[in-house]
Design brief:
This protein has 413 residues and is of the alpha/beta class. The chain has three domains: 80 residues, Archaeosine Trna-guanine Transglycosylase, Chain: A, domain 4 (Roll), CATH 2.30.130; 110 residues, 2-Layer Sandwich (Transcription Regulator spoIIAA), CATH 3.30.750; 193 residues, Rossmann fold, CATH 3.40.50. 26% of the residues lie in helices and 29% in strands. It contains eleven helices and 20 strands. Strands 16-15-14-17-18-20-19 form a seven-stranded mixed sheet, with helices on both faces. A six-stranded mixed sheet has the order 2-6-5-4-1-3. Helix 6 packs parallel to helix 7, helix 9 runs parallel beside helix 10 and helix 10 crosses helix 11. It is globular and about 70 Å long.
Length: 413
């Protein structure tokens, strides 16, 4: 494994000293994990990605320590604030162990509700900004969103929990700048080679994921609780799962007693995995009694077509990808959510259940829920809310911008 990191420069021995604005001081004291370049008022020298930067307050007292990123507007990813800490192997071991312990109850569920797949490290929210770690049974998938972690991989990997293999995934910024990777590539970091998808349990259901080519790290663990709620509401219903991806909501609906499930997604590869995920659970009662239909089609084309055919469903699940990646896209995203609500209601029976989610962090929850209700009112299908949900246990939230997932369960008039 050491050979993989041979070309990655080591961090500078001397720490970068920074002074910041009063506003940034307040934010850091309150636990915010980012220091923006625009908030820096003094800097001792320019460092390289991953160098340690120490931030001092106006009285020249220690304020925080973090990882320096010279090419990002988020110039420092904060690792510790208010109390000096030594960043090294012991610190990484303690931090990673603390994050894993938060998920211990989730992974300790006995059969037949066993879970062997979840998120172990949720970036900033677990004190490791820009670093995500997901477990798929005996496979760990490490995803990096910033180059500041590269010089520290030699200390991070030994601190991870035991596994058969560790897979590396890269965020878009890193993947598009191979020169910043010093020869590292996505794929196997250590352990046994991966042959095909990995399989894991979630609440007693068997799923597969492709940790190398799949979206994010291969599966969306953050929707686990919402999938369980769909299961509780699906009995006797005909369910339409739009943006189905690999069929997680579909399988849960079937175990909940849905008569028929239709999975819609534009990705043929994702739907192939959805078929397999259904097959893995066919012997789980009453999944085998439910009918599963696959539609490889764009959601914004499939919904009008189904409505034109007079198709109606007792439950419609709308779980689209993020519509807003930047603040400038928020208005367009809200319009897309309104349109999606109208399309979903067009195929939803009277007294049917609408399940609509947003994973756009730029869209505030209240604005999202408001637009869904406005669209329903426009369609003369007012909604009676059953629940508003947020993040699952393994996706904790430690700062405002970390909140992204929101989901509405409602009955339509």
């Amino acid at each position: 494994m050491a050979d993989l990191f041979a070309n990655i420069p080591t961090i500078a021995e001397k720490r970068i000293a920074l002074r910041v604005t009063a506003e940034a001081e307040r934010a850091i004291r309150q636990g915010h994990p980012w220091l923006f370049e625009s908030a820096i008022t003094q800097q001792s020298f320019m460092g390289q990605p991953g160098d340690l930067a120490v931030i001092f307050d106006k009285k020249r007292r220690f304020l925080a320590i973090g990882l320096f990123d010279p090419d990002s507007p988020i110039r420092v990813k904060i690792l510790g604030a208010n109390k000096p800490v030594s960043i090294g192997p012991e610190w990484f071991q303690e931090k990673i162990a603390a994050a894993c312990s938060l998920r211990a109850t989730l992974l300790a569920q006995p059969a037949p509700r066993q879970t062997t797949g979840c998120r172990l490290i949720h970036g900033e929210n677990d004190g490791l900004p820009g670093l995500v770690l997901d477990r798929y049974e005996n496979t760990l998938v490490l995803k990096l969103y910033t180059p500041v972690w590269l010089p520290h991989l030699g200390e991070i990997l030994p601190a991870l929990p035991p596994a058969d293999r560790i897979i590396l995934r890269l965020g878009r910024r890193l993947a598009e700048q191979p020169g910043d990777l010093f020869g590292l590539e996505e794929g196997l970091l250590s352990g046994a080679p991966l042959e095909g998808p990995v399989q894991f349990w979630e609440n007693g259901l068997r799923f597969e994921a492709d940790p190398i080519r799949g979206q994010k790290t291969g599966f969306f663990f953050d929707q686990r609780d919402n999938r369980s709620m769909v299961e509780q509401l699906a009995s006797g219903r005909e369910v339409l799962n739009v943006f189905a991806y690999t069929g997680g909501f579909s399988v849960y609906a079937a175990r909940g007693g849905a008569r028929r499930v239709v999975s819609v997604d534009s990705s043929a590869a994702a739907l192939d995995a959805a078929r397999r995920n259904w097959a893995y659970n066919r012997d789980v009662f009453p999944v085998g009694d439910s009918e599963h239909t696959i539609l490889a089609e764009d959601a914004f084309e499939a919904l009008p077509r189904l409505a034109g055919q007079g198709r109606q469903f007792d439950m419609v699940i709308l779980d689209p990808p993020a519509f807003a990646h930047r603040n400038q896209q928020v208005d367009r995203a809200l319009a897309a959510y309104r349109r999606l609500t109208l399309l979903g209601l067009s195929v939803l029976t009277k007294e049917g259940i609408l399940v609509q989610a947003s994973c756009s962090s730029r869209v505030p929850a209240e604005d999202f829920f408001k637009q869904v209700h406005l669209a329903a009112a426009h369609a003369k299908r007012p909604l009676m809310e059953l629940a508003r949900t947020g993040h699952a246990l393994d996706h904790p939230i430690a700062y405002p911008e970390g909140t992204y997932l929101k989901c509405l369960f409602a009955k339509a008039a």
